Automatic annotation (TrEMBL):
Bilayer-crossing regions: none
Limits of the HIT domain: 34-143
PANTHER family registered for this protein in UniProt: HISTIDINE TRIAD HIT PROTEIN
Catalytic residue positions: 129 (tele-amp-histidine intermediate)
One Pfam family it belongs to: HIT
Name of the protein described by the UniProt record: HIT domain-containing protein
Motif window: Histidine triad motif: 127-131
Listed GO MF terms: catalytic activity
């Protein structure tokens, strides 16, 4: 277990894993995504929260001891493509992330929320998602 934690620490200290950056460079918006398949229960995920507007589940490639993704059920490809009419949904995503962080006990020591947008933002799945990262000291700048 310690080796896993050390691995995450090293990834955080050196920036994003090269594989994630490469995935982001080759990813493109459009079509179905892995998150759509997860929402339809075609691919298993460890869900921690679901409602009519969003769902949250553990990341399969965690970058911290706690790494949960919060995604809208509405397929918004990226934050920069959200519309003014999505304001309530975007607020709900952040409120849900806050509640999940508290549920996971992260509100006591702190946590980080991340939204990657586009290729240069290292977005590797073109379905808007909020990363909840916690359980260790985060570093700045992130990458």
């Amino acid at each position: 277990m310690e080796a896993t934690c050390q691995c995450h620490k090293n990834k955080a200290e050196t920036g994003m894993m090269a594989g994630e950056v490469e995935l982001a460079k080759s990813a493109a918006p459009g079509g179905d995504t892995i998150f759509g398949k997860i929402l339809r229960k075609e691919i298993p995920a460890k869900f921690v929260y679901e409602d009519d507007e969003c769902a949250a589940f553990h990341d399969v490639n965690p970058q911290a001891p706690t790494h949960i993704l919060v995604i809208p059920r509405k397929p918004i490809p990226q934050l920069s493509q959200a519309e003014d009419g999505d304001e309530q949904l975007l607020g709900h995503l952040l409120t849900t992330a806050r509640k999940i962080a508290a549920q996971e006990g992260l509100d006591k020591s702190g946590f980080r929320l991340v939204i990657n947008d586009g290729k240069n933002g290292a977005q590797s799945v073109y379905h808007l998602h909020v990363h909840i990262l916690g359980g260790r000291q985060m570093h700045w700048p992130p990458g």
